[in-house]
Amino acid sequence: MSQDVRAWVTSVAEATGPDRVVWYSGADEQARAIEASMVADGSFLELDPSRYPRCYLHRSHPSDVARTEHLTFICSRRKEDAGPTNHWMSPDDAQARVWPLFEGSMRGRTMYVVPYLLGPPGSPYSRVGVELTDSPYVLANLRLMTRAGDVALAELGESSKFVRGIHSLGDRDPERRFVCHFPESQTIWAIGTGYGGNAMLSKKSHGLRLAGAEGRDHGWMAEHMLVLGLTDPRGHKTFIAAAFPSKC
Questions:
Q1: What contacts 144, CB < 8 A, 6 or more positions away?
Q2: What is the pLDDT of residue 245?
Q3: Of 55, 75, 180, 248, which residue is the catalytic one?
Q4: Whole-angstrom Cα distance, residue 191 to residue 134?
Q5: How far apart are alpha carbons 72 and 182 in whole angstroms?
Q6: Going by C-beta distance under 8 Å and a sequence separation of 6 or more, which residues neighbour residue 86?
Q7: Residue 225: predicted pLDDT
Q8: What are the start-end ranges of the E strands in 36-109?
Q9: What is the pLDDT of residue 67?
Q10: How do 87-88 and 110-118 pair as beta strands?
Q11: Diameter of the chain by CA atoms?
Q12: Residue partners of 211: CB distance under 8 A and separation at least 6
């Protein structure tokens, strides 16, 4: 495992103060145990297992049901690098204004370490990220949206080139809710939110905002799109291409 990953996880845990740290391996048994814990504490409501096996209802907090564009910032050194459609905050201001909200934010909770891979293993176009989150709901979704767990650490090897994402539910107070992107350091912070577009950092934060900055620097373009292959019970595969509205 990359020593940079291990050192970074240790430093974030020291700052956020979780009761325990759990590394997600990608094992199905581990995911099932986490799902069962969410059913037990009421955050997951299990649907009819005979009709919808391993399917759950999760309800967002009433104050936290949408992306918060006015609290989402690109924290580049130069304001002009944030682009014409984004809000900008300097890295120094973010350090002073936002980082203190993370201090002790995970006390009484578990910090999950979720390595993820965007793209197939071995592809030169794939990217590795690691999200640290105190939300098991985020973990449950990252494993559906990405190749999560040991496969991502294997792809990374001893490299230090990975996107560093830190997410905490905090107290979900809208006055203490921020999503910050640091393109120069390939870092993401999200605090005070559990909503998918804000909390699952592989999605808009890594796959669109930081990817857009990387693409600008290296001569390619990032779009919020997908190519999906669906195989029906008879073995017939259908491919679907989709483009999503935000920033496309």
A1: none
A2: 67
A3: 248
A4: 10
A5: 11
A6: 72, 73, 74, 209
A7: 79
A8: 45-46, 56-57, 72-74, 87-88
A9: 78
A10: unpaired
A11: 57
A12: 127, 222
**In the prediction, which pLDDT does 66 show?**
82
Six-digit token pair at 95?
């350090």
pLDDT at 247: 54
Cα distance between residue 82 and residue 88, in whole Å: 6
CA distance 66 to 135: 17
Closest CA to 142 of 201, 195, 198: 201
Q: How far apart are CA 149 and CA 234, in angstroms?
A: 30
Q: Is 75 a catalytic residue?
A: no
The alpha carbon dihedral of 176, 179, 182, 188 has a sign of positive
With a CB cutoff of 8 Å and minimum separation 6, the contacts of 137 are 38, 43, 44, 58, 194, 199
Round to whole Å and give the CA distance between 37 and 40.
5
Contact partners, residue 95, CB within 8 Å, separation at least 6? none
Q: Per-10-residue mean pLDDT for the chain, 248 residues long? A: 94 98 97 96 96 94 86 96 93 98 98 96 95 97 96 97 97 95 98 94 93 91 84 96 72
> Would you say the C-alpha torsion 44, 49, 51, 52 has a positive or negative sign?
positive
**Measured distance between the N- and C-terminal CA atoms of the chain, rounded to whole angstroms:** 36
Calculated CA dihedral for residues 125, 164, 222, 79, nearest 10 degrees: -140
